[in-house]
Amino acid sequence: MHTDPLELTRSLLSETAVLRHGFLDVLGESTSAPVPTFAQRAMNSPFVATVYERLWRPASFYLASGFTAQAEQRRAAAALQLHSAGTLLDVACGPGNFTAPLARCLPAGGLAVGFDISEPMLARAVADNSGPQTCYVRGDARMLPFDDETFDAVCCFGALYLMPEPFRITHEMVRVLRPGGRIAILTSYSGQTAPIRKALTATAGLIGLTMFDRHSFVDLFASAGLVDIDQQAQRALQFVAATKPR
């Protein structure tokens, strides 16, 4: 029996949500967010939301990692073990350019929830990346509106370096992950030689990006009790995945 992804997502939410522009909104007019950096303001621009999916993200990620978007999606689907996952939460999903292809990797009846704070990004996600196994939610990732152990897989790709309180957000991602579930992140990496590292860190700081070292998320996952931690670094990005033990 077909299940409406909107209604299924409502059943997973721990807060009341209003349907706006095709996505569920738990924030309304109040975000209580800090003053955004330049990079964060860009993510809330309707123009950036329009070009991000087709031009900005594919080009920037290839330069930063040497991976195409399609290769990154395949790695993510494998690391998250989506072939056996019923529910996926994609934190800071932007225009849904990862949410939609990852949803297609889920079994029949599975659900991928794209989560973001930007209205223009979510409006673009609804327009371009909707499907029978996707739903989008607007909220603050520092306080995910889901109960503990809600999702079989949780991910955040190319956003933690933009966000306030990235470690708090990561702990929230671990909180809503079910035992036996997989978590994966793709974020910045500052493990290069000293001259390159200093140049990258200085440039990132000018536009409000955070550069993370090789230990930040490996140590966070380990301290949270996660196992099977795998880290892959390439150029200026790192991919870290782990399992929440049963």
Automatic annotation (TrEMBL):
Domain Methyltransferase type span(s) in chain numbering: 89-185
SUPFAM superfamilies associated with the record: S-adenosyl-L-methionine-dependent methyltransferases
Molecular-function GO term, any one: S-adenosylmethionine-dependent methyltransferase activity
Gene3D superfamilies, sorted: Vaccinia Virus protein VP39
InterPro entries: Methyltransf_11, SAM-dependent_MTases_sf
Highest taxon of the lineage: Bacteria
CDD domains reported in the protein's UniProt record: AdoMet_MTases
PANTHER family (alphabetical): METHYLTRANSFERASE, OS06G0646000 PROTEIN
Name this polypeptide is given: Methyltransferase domain-containing protein
Record organism: Mycobacterium simiae (Mycobacterium habana)
Organism phylogeny: Bacteria, Bacillati, Actinomycetota, Actinomycetes, Mycobacteriales
